[in-house]
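Each lists sequence, tokenised fold; shown next:
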Amino acid sequence: MNNIVTPQFHKIPITLGITGHRDLREEDKEILRNSVRKIFQFIHTNYPNTPLQLFSPLADGADRLVAEVALAENVQLLVPLPMPKELYEIDFQTPDSKQEFEQLLEKAQVFELPLLEGNTTETVRDYGDARTLQYALVGAYIARHSHILIALWDGIPLDKSGGTSQVVQFKRTGDMMDLPKCYKPQQHGPLDVPDTGPICQVVTGRESGEPLDLVGEFKVLLPNNEDKNHLEDLLSSDLAAINRFNHDVTKHVNCFLLQRRIINGQKYLLSEKRWQDLLTLSPAFQTMLGVHSTANTLARFFQNRLRRSSIKVLWLTAAMVGLYGWYSNLENNPTILIGYLMLFLSAAGLGWIAKGRHYQSKRLDYRALAGGLRVQLFWHLGGLSDSVADYYLCKQRGELTWIQSAIRALNIHDWVENQENLETIHQKWIVHQREWFSKHAQRNQRKAKKWGWWKKGFFTLGVVSIVGLLVGQFTGTLQSGEMWHNLLILLIALAPTAGALLHHYTEKMAFDEHAKQYERMVALFSRASDELKNIMTRLQQVKDDPIASEACQKAAKELLFELGKEVLENGDWVLFHRKIPLELPKMG
């Protein structure tokens, strides 16, 4: 399959959602359009490398006004329908309203939300509690999946289930009246803070209410009940990190070698048939697959750059020590000092470039992003509707918040569309990861052992040099100024320094710690492989028994779910590496 890699396809979008009144005042509409346009333009100006998406269910009023502005500003329109289209259209009372709805649908990516448990097409057909709950679901869905919620709202709190006020409350607190608990943000304990986000309120009057003086004015409502009045308060480090990732995609993904790695990275996750049918899968799944492979490729790219920079800095530092020893013990030549200065500036420059271009943080973050998306993809392929973003530990969220936010924006379908068979998941995820971790555990063990021997060798050489110099001086066989005397002086300075530099390098690269972590992951995936093979064997034995087959499928899903959680919880290596950032070796 000739799958074309394009930068736009593999970027993480900033997602915006809309909630608002249906009965807008006609005289306010142009003011509101201008205000909403300013929001889109402001976000695009501050995050120029990042595509924007808007979630709108296209109800009358605010939903459609904002959708029209979004399309005019080249923002992708996503339409989550709260129920089957023919039932939803009952809301639109006039032919003009239905025609407007159809015209907007033609310009959007449309998908239908599943009915809540207990609801059926019959119960949501008529106005009542079941239909109202579907409105609440689509409002909560938009609030959950949007980085920023735009609210065309008068600011008056009401208790109407699924109404604008309730959606705003849900975005700020993670709670909505009448919404089942399973659709609310996951909390891992009473002290866990729910995953929420900012709201940009555009003050909006209602046809059924009194005219307002501040129509079109902005208020930024934050999760901690703090209110601001400037669009700048919508900016965040999480969105900046997403924009930085997208900038790297634009800058580096056009390289042919990286493109091939990205394509191969997508291909290995899927069965041959699924790969051949890739373009028929949901656009959201394709984007998530592409971002996973791109993040994985960029993580390797920045890791290689970091390693090369680190090795160059270490060699330059060793050369500086050699020149210093030469100057202080052998020859007081100013040229040596100039050489020392040039080496120092070169090493400092390389360190400054590595730090300024964020090699360390990018290789860590992008690998963590790829790991989270890998779990999410295989959960989907395994028939699970859970969101990875809900299962990061509290201690990880401070470091991984932008990754959690990115995964939620990419995972716009919280239900299964592309389920694979268990054998494919076993081979493509569990066996592949077990072999990957096993290979890299052995590689890190070899590196730790090799560099350990080199460290011991350099320190031993230093000791031998000191002993040799002492013996030579006591026996009178070495005189000051002789070649061997000078050589031993240099070795006394250089050998322990080289050992110390290698110790610095191996400590920062954490070969031993990686090997131990990888061995734990090998054990985890080995246990999962054994358990899943037992389930698949049992499934073959009971394939003619629907009840037993369903029980096996349920057991398989539970296993994949627990495996995914374990993988996420073992993401502590990111926190570990942040505690030991790569730095220039300190002299003296």
